[in-house]
Amino acid sequence: MRILCKLVLLLVVIFTVSCSKKENPVSVSLNVMSFNIWVGGGKSIGATAEVFVNSGADIIGVQEASRDDRNIAEYIADSLGWHSYVYDRSPTIISKYPIIDTSANKHGVKIKIDESHYVWMFNVHLIHCPYEPYQLNGIEYCGAPSLSTENEAIESARQSREKDVKSNISDILSVQKEGYPVFLTGDFNEPSCLDWTSEAVEAKLCKIAVKWPSTKAFIDSAGMKDSYRILYPDEVKNPGYTWTPLPETTAYTEVLDRIDFVFFWGNNIELKNSQVLGEESPESDIKFNNYPSDHRAVLSSFIIK
Question: Quick check: pTM over 0.85?
Answer without folding.
Answer: yes
